[in-house]
Amino acid sequence: MAQFDPPTAPITTQERLSETLLYPDERKLRRTSAWLLLFFLLQGELGVVWDREWHAYVGRDQFWTPPHELMYSAIAGAGLISLAVVLWETTRYYRKTPGVNDNSTVAIFRFFHAPLGFSVIGFGALCALCAAPLDNYWHELYGIDVALWAPFHMMGAIGGLIGMLGMVYVFASEAAIQRHNHENTHKILGLSGLEIGVMMTLTSIMSYVITGFLLFPLIKIGSLNISAYPLPLIAGGAFSLIAIMRATHRPGTATVLTLVVCLHSTLIELFVPWAIRVAVAQQGITYRDPVQRPHFSLAYALFPLIFLIPALIIDILAWYTKQQRGSTDFSSKVQFLLGTVFGLGILLLAPFMLNSYTSYANIFLPEPGLIIPSYFMVGTVIVTALVTIVTGIMTGFLGEEFGRIWRWNRK
Question: Which residues, listed in sequence order, are joined to residue 308 by a DSSP beta bridge?
């Protein structure tokens, strides 16, 4: 069922003054911190991709590799900024500073009081930093491991995802305050700078999902292996594309987000192979495989275009709904349709787009030399399609709900 934003009472002049003119320091603090956090997010994301390729081409003989330095310094920077904001806002709360109260902060452990987004980022950064020494110990025990499902890889990945969701809250809450106060601001493609911050953070979430998609395990059923990599692609894409449209109420943002993700992945793919070659040459180390060298992959750089068709469908439906009803809220039927499009679309397109990038592009991988019965293959394909559709529907609904929250939340 479609859901609508709660009605907003007309804004009085006094209310406008109370949130803007009387508290300019509060807005400046939160917004400046948000942009600094975005810088560290982009730095950390670059480190994650570099680290994945470093493991694949070079290995892991020590903790302080160049990508680790880039990645963990970014996590530490984001964590310190969040901690500083939490402590400063808590101090201002107890001093009863105007603009810092229960309406603009959340309580943490019944003592600290801080903006919701910064609190979430702090917990995410703490989780990721705690995973670092544990992951290092894991590598010392078991050696090189490029699998995502190593326990402390998962701990770090979850911490990073929590931090990125918190960053969306930071930008979205300030954008909501900006809209509430009718602040005059320069816009690009109809989006304010803070809404672009929301989009850039969701870009990082989608890129984060793409970074680890081929590290997901194979599901073995008898003599047939099934690649699980479409599931995170469907989940990340459906969630982010629906959420950005819902948070901004602007048809077209899903397509723009897809193109930004594609540009982002292209720039990273241009940098990472070069960075590995330079670092290997400077440190005088050898590659794991003397034959293979890191190189630019056009297939990987353009892989985010797999989301283009679903994004266009989302924007067209949002535009049509807005023309008919004056709102971009999707009905339950439309949500089910979008989930089906995401599930089946990624399942069908991903193998073709990745065929030149990896030998594991196919979803269904039978054991060599074994014949798979046709009835078994048909049943497996049907079940796989149903799982991907359900994944698309569920994460699409999540994107709708999170986008709705980000639209009105001002804490």
Answer: none
Distance CA 79, CA 386 (A): 40
In the chain, the amino acid numbered 248 is: T
Helices 66-94 and 151-180: crossing angle, nearest 10°? 50
Element at 366 (helix H, strand E): strand 364-366
Q: SS3 for 319?
A: helix
Among candidate residues 62, 58, 48, the one with its CA nearest the CA of residue 293: 58
Cβ pair 45, 38 in contact under 8 A = no
Cα separation, 68 vs 283, in Å, equals: 15
Give the closest residue to 15 by CA, choosing from 95, 103, 91.
Answer: 103
Structure tokens at 188: 């690009």
Q: Please state, in angstroms and rounded to a whole number, the distance separating the CA atoms of residues 193 and 187.
A: 7
Of 65, 70, 67, 74, the closest CA to residue 50 belongs to 67
Q: Kindly give, in sequence order, each residue whose CB lies less than 8 Å from that of residue 149, ignoring residues fewer than 6 positions away.
A: 215, 216, 217
The answer to whether residue 21 scores a pLDDT higher than 60 is no
pLDDT of residue 326: 76
Task: Give the 3-state secondary structure of residue 108.
Answer: strand
Q: Which helix (H) or strand (E) holds 253?
A: helix 253-283
pTM: 0.85
Q: Beta-carbon neighbour count of residue 18 at 10 Å?
A: 14
Count CA within 13 A, CB hemisphere, residue 102. 2
Q: What is the mean pLDDT of residues 221-229?
A: 76
